[in-house]
Amino acid sequence: MSDKIKFEIEFVIQASPQLLYQYISTPSGLSEWYADNVNSRSEMFTFIWDGSEENAKMLKRKSDEFVKFSWEENEDDSFFEMRIIVDEITKDVSLFITDFADEDELDEAKMLWENQVSDLKQVLGSK
Questions:
Q1: CATH number for 23
Q2: How many other β-carbons are positioned within 10 Å of the β-carbon of residue 75?
Q3: Which of 27, 86, 112, 127 has the smallest set of CB atoms within 10 Å of its CB?
């Protein structure tokens, strides 16, 4: 097994932290932009894309601030986290993504997040 590389990307999103949090922490919110469908039982989330399912455990969350998931089939300590950051001066809201990918899939993983977050911005009516 190859070691995964941690990467971080930041997206400015024109939405309140409270609204954004609903879209990153709830099955209904995540179904709007991240996956075709999302179901949850307590901290276990099932993400469905084109008929295939992936299970993730919500490791941590803090209301209006961040959510952290780990894919069930992971054999390492990798996770993905979506953190809401509000600039103290400008009050700009950013979604800060932390994720892991194999070296040969790094560009693809970043592009996937860019596409997903583009869908999120569309749902939110953000530019």
A1: 3.30.530.20
A2: 7
A3: 127
**CA–CA gap between residue 31 and residue 101 (Å, rounded):** 23
Q: Which domain holds residue 68?
A: 5-124
Own/partner contacts of 98-105, CB < 8 Å, gap of 24 or more, are 98/6, 98/7, 98/8, 99/6, 99/7, 99/8, 100/4, 100/5, 100/6, 100/7, 100/76, 101/4, 101/5, 101/7, 102/2, 102/4, 102/5, 103/2, 103/5
pLDDT digits (tens, 9 = 90+) for 19-54: 999 999 999 999 999 999 999 999 999 999 998 999
Which amino acid is residue 57, in one-letter code? Answer: K
Q: State the Cα–Cα distance between residues 78 and 98, nearest whole angstrom.
A: 10
Chain-centroid distance, C-alpha 56: 12
Low-confidence ranges of the chain (pLDDT < 50): 1
Where do we find the tokens 């901290």?
43
The rounded distance, in Å, linking the Cα atoms of 24 and 119 is 13
Number of folded domains that form the chain:
1
Tokens 């990467």 -> residue? 7
